[in-house]
Specification:
about 120 residues, mainly alpha, metal-binding
Length: about 120
């Protein structure tokens, strides 16, 4: 049953990513919407992990929300492809900023989430 729920969580996360990406691309150019999505997914996962560590969230709920939803919502592969495209088109400055931000911002977001909810 947990596997089915994780799959449903992943489907919901994928749909959420599509909707958020579509909305953000009206305001920001590629690759910044992907960075925002990955950072927000990391923040949510940090919050969930903190709740689980504090005993407020069970393993099945963490699997569904963390592995399922956050896994479907975040997208490292898109970030990697967008970084490649920036390098391929000669946008080295943007590629450098995006690459560094793509590594640091999600880690900081996950750390913040965990810090906010861990006992």
């Amino acid at each position: 049953m947990t596997v089915l729920l994780v799959a449903l969580g992943g489907a919901a996360g994928s749909v959420a990513r599509f909707l958020v990406d579509t909305a953000l691309r009206r305001r920001w150019s590629v690759p910044w919407p992907t960075l925002a999505i990955n950072a927000s997914a990391s923040l949510l996962l940090g919050l969930l992990a903190g709740l689980a560590a504090a005993g407020h969230l069970g393993g099945s709920a963490l699997a569904v929300a963390g592995t399922g939803f956050c896994g479907g919502y975040s997208t490292f592969s898109t970030a990697a492809f967008e970084l490649y495209r920036l390098l391929e088109t000669g946008e080295r400055g943007t590629a450098l900023r995006y690459g560094v931000a793509s590594l640091l911002l999600p880690v900081l977001a996950a750390t913040a989430g965990m810090s906010l909810t861990a006992g």
